[in-house]
Design goal:
The chain has 12 helices and 9 strands. The chain has 348 residues and is of the alpha+beta class. The strands form 3 sheets. Strands 1-9-8-7 form a 4-stranded antiparallel β-sheet.
């Protein structure tokens, strides 16, 4: 039986990472003895046949021609052997594999890198060549949290694994990658259940550790394993790394707007020499008139480096912007975002 034990992951790497081993033909199972016998018999027939036939012919015609008959037979035999090796020997470059088809059994036969003996009747074609080098894909997966979706960006590297090459034959790459995406979706949904979007975004390192454990264990709680998925599809996962958890664009724009408003409010308050929270309250209760507030906020926009607000004229009417900023702060508080709003609500 071939050695189908995949190498151990490197624990020093973040996420799941393997040092992909050089493929060896010794990990492939096939009848090597019968192929060696086939090669020996074919060599005797192809090389010795012409010599024997021409020597027999020379004996019938003139025994003195025997040396020339042997020489010519040797040359013809060498040529036939050269042609025969095209069907008797398979050569694969490094990091490549070849799969032939035995027309008698109907089975595919795998060959790894290097030169190998084969049966001359095995069928070969260009589609039988497979690269064993790693393939890199970047996927994005949307995962629901208690507050909003987050989009996970995952870098996945895998390679066709020589001991499982016959399992890979006939598979569609898109099907294999879709299967991995489905696994990833299920994994992240389970691990982030009950988390808010903000807390989920802080768990990238933890998720990478859990993901590595998922691929290292023999069986998970569901009684399945990532290794079963790999062997079934004839691949070996080389590395899996969650590189980011981002909010959807619409949600991020809303939060950016709240943050911009918070910064502008703080700048305006500092320009007045007031505490930002007290300043906001004075604007809300009318202690600071709207007309004065608009002028202050215009000046804050002019000096602030936080927001890209070139669309607004510095001396224009920005009552709508001021009202929007105050409405956001009335809901979320100066802490900004969901967490700040929740904390402020609890303190009242």
């Amino acid at each position: 039986m071939p050695d189908t034990t995949a190498p151990a992951p490197d624990p020093s790497k973040e996420g799941y990472f393997l040092d992909l081993p050089s493929p060896r033909d010794s990990t492939v199972e096939r009848d090597r003895a019968s192929r060696a016998l086939d090669f020996a018999i074919s060599t005797i027939v192809l090389w010795g046949g012409p010599i024997v036939l021409l020597l027999w012919w020379s004996m019938l015609v003139s025994p003195s021609l025997a040396p020339f008959a042997i020489l010519i037979g040797f040359v013809i035999g060498a040529f036939l052997e050269y042609l025969g090796t095209q069907k008797l020997i398979i050569y694969n470059e490094e990091w490549t594999a070849y799969a032939t088809n035995d027309p008698f059994s109907g089975d595919n036969v795998a060959y790894g890198p290097g030169a190998h003996l084969s049966h001359f009747w095995e069928q070969r074609n260009k589609s039988g060549i497979y690269s064993l080098e790693r393939i890199t894909r970047v996927f994005t997966v949307d995962v629901a949290t208690t507050t909003s979706k987050v989009t996970a960006t995952v870098t996945y590297q895998y390679a066709v694994y020589l001991p499982w090459l016959l399992n890979f034959i006939g598979n569609d790459i898109s099907t294999i990658e879709s299967g991995f995406i489905g696994f990833l979706q299920s994994f992240l949904t389970e691990k982030l259940a009950g988390d808010t979007a903000e807390s989920a975004r802080k768990k990238i390192r933890e998720l990478n550790t859990l993901l590595a454990q998922e691929f290292m264990q023999v069986k998970n709680l569901a009684g399945t394993s990532a290794r079963e998925f790999e062997e079934k599809n004839g691949i070996l996962s080389v590395s899996i790394l969650i590189t980011g958890l981002a909010l959807p664009e619409a949600v991020q724009k809303t939060r950016d707007a709240v943050e911009e408003a918070r910064v502008l409010m703080e700048v305006a308050a500092r320009m007045m020499g007031k505490d930002p929270e007290k300043f906001m309250q004075q604007v809300l209760d009318g202690t600071i008139p709207w007309s004065q507030y608009e002028k202050i906020l215009n000046r804050a926009m002019a000096v602030s480096e936080n927001a890209q607000l070139e669309l607004f004229a510095v001396e224009g009417d920005i009552g709508n912007l001021g009202a929007a900023a105050l409405a956001r702060f009335a809901k979320h508080g100066l802490g900004g975002g969901e967490e700040g709003g929740k904390k402020k609500g609890k303190g009242k």
